[in-house]
Amino acid sequence: MSSQTQRPRAIFLDIDGTYADHGLAPQAHVDAVRTARKLGHLVFVCTGRPLSMVPAHILAAGFDGTITGAGARVEVGGDVLRDARFEPELAASIVETLDAHGASYILEAPEALYGRTGVDLRLREVLGPIFAGRPQHDGVLSTDVDPLEDILGPMQYSDDLRATSYAKISCFDSPVPLTRLMETFGPGVGLIPSSLSALGDRAGEIYMAGTHKAVGIQVVEARLGLDRADIVAIGDSANDIEMLEYAGVGIAVEGGHPAVLAVADRTTAAPAGDGVALAFAELGLLG
């Protein structure tokens, strides 16, 4: 038996484009998570999605904890260890700016998603064609899972969102490039490209500067007394850069964001090629 199989690891998995593709997780990924945990390894979800947008069918494989909102919220063993949100004054200012420029966006919080009245119609127009080409997997998940419902299901609507408490914003359609709007927000706000690259510079994720997935991993590391060398992270998007840099072993999904590939120690296949399962096997996590 190799030292890799003898030494318990803590694996942090991005969801979209890594563990699942447009909301569908291959059976091989589900099996890999369950097998690794049975062998004593820890496996965590580490996603940019808020908890409210992580459906039960994604969590069905069984995980030791969740890092959601790209590090804003951390939960381990039922205990919430971190729940960071924008300060109210800044939160209101960002909303006012997006509204003034006619942007379509979603405010993300652990308990719900928040959008302006009618934003669901724009979401269907913009995202419908993208999700229509989603893959079909023959795993435990039904092929009729609608990834758009992961967004619309937890949505709450209002004509005025300035008083809303949230951790992150997903902007999917802005008439003004978001990079230009960022100049008005100040140093406490960051921007990364949308994981849906087809949306271009009119889309992106607006987040609290200094909050990223590696911050969430550090919270778990401190709580459980993990050794950084035993941390494995797998991801594909711009919000995975910090966690791959931080992990003892950082694995990028082939075809992922160039900056993610640049910091990775190794690569693995996309969900259609059972990449998470392949990576687990290569690391000796499956016995």
Features:
287 residues, eight-stranded mixed sheet, six-stranded mixed sheet, disordered N terminus
Describe the structure.
With 287 residues, this protein is α/β, with parallel strands linked by helices. Helix content is 31%, strand content 22%. It contains 11 helices and 14 strands. The protein has helices spanning 3-6, 27-38, 56-59, 88-100, 119-131, 147-152, 178-181, 213-224, 241-246, 258-263, 275-282; strands spanning 10-13, 42-46, 65-68, 73-76, 79-83, 104-108, 113-116, 155-158, 168-173, 189-192, 204-208, 231-235, 249-253, 266-268. Strands 5-4-3-2-1-12-13-14 form an 8-stranded mixed beta sheet. It has a 6-stranded mixed beta sheet with strand order 8-7-6-9-11-10, with helices on one face. The protein is globular.
In terms of topology, how is this protein built?
Blueprint: H1 3-6, E1 10-13, H2 27-38, E2 42-46, H3 56-59, E3 65-68, E4 73-76, E5 79-83, H4 88-100, E6 104-108, E7 113-116, H5 119-131, H6 147-152, E8 155-158, E9 168-173, H7 178-181, E10 189-192, E11 204-208, H8 213-224, E12 231-235, H9 241-246, E13 249-253, H10 258-263, E14 266-268, H11 275-282
Parallel strand pairs: 1-2, 1-12, 2-3, 7-8, 12-13, 13-14
Antiparallel strand pairs: 3-4, 4-5, 6-7, 6-9, 9-11, 10-11
Counting DSSP E segments of at least 2 residues, the number of strands comes to 14
Shape: globular
Mean pLDDT: 91
Radius of gyration, whole Å: 18 Å
- Low-confidence segments, given as residue ranges, are 1-5, 137-143
The percentage of residues in β strands lies in 15-25%
Q: How much helicity do the residues have?
A: 25-40%
